[in-house]
């Protein structure tokens, strides 16, 4: 027990050997001596940083003394000589091929189609356009003037009532009536083709009145439409 008391006194007495330091990185007493704890460790202040470390408290951060650099032997004197630089040789110009200009991507042509109900556009057995049919075609003409297109195909259809020959003639007459309307309202007639298919291409069952009404129609197909 006596030995432990002696060791404790020796530890408490260690601050007497503390180093006097001028920076504020450590706690100091009135004589600017670094204050240490009972274990011999320095108390750091809030302003401590590695640049303020001293060897007594933080030897791992304190700067090491620089070693004296051994004297190097004097380099031998080299005789200076004037050497004429070689004259630059003319460089032949290199022809640079111009990069090819990429062609613009082609505009994809589209296909559009509208269907005119024959009952609304024509009287029974007639090929003269009624007012409803003319109104619908007038809307189509207005749209066609804002786009470029390759061709227009007008196809007439009928139901299965009547002979094949009569239906074929009626479907072609109605297709030609639509072409004439488009041509007289500014559409290039050379781009318009007509076709009459009579009752050969039904889209509904001819056994019902509703089906036969759907089959009596005129289709206008515009191919290759592009923005103008």
Can you tell me about this structure?
The chain has 228 residues and is of the alpha+beta class. It has helices at 2-12, 118-121, 131-144, 164-184, 209-215; strands at residues 110-117, 147-148, 151-157, 192-196, 217-227. The longest helix is centred in the last third of the chain and has 21 residues, at 164-184. Helix 4 (164-184) links the parallel strand 3 (151-157) and strand 4. It is elongated and about 125 Å long. The chain contains five helices and five strands. The chain has two domains: 2-52, no CATH class; 110-227, OmpA-like domain (60s Ribosomal Protein L30, Chain: A, 2-Layer Sandwich), CATH 3.30.1330. Strands 1, 2, 3, 4 and 5 form a five-stranded mixed sheet that branches.
Major sheet attributes: 5 strands, mixed
Query: What CATH architecture of the largest domain do you see?
Result: 2-Layer Sandwich
Number of strands: 5
Radius of gyration: 53 Å
Strand content: 5-15%
Portion of residues within helices: 25-40%
CATH class of the largest domain: Alpha Beta
Number of helices: 5
Class of secondary structure makeup = alpha+beta
Structure, briefly:
The protein has 228 residues and is α+β, with helices and mostly antiparallel strands.
Features:
five-stranded mixed beta sheet; 60s Ribosomal Protein L30, Chain: A; 2 domains; 228 residues; 5 strands; disordered N terminus; 25% helix; elongated; alpha+beta
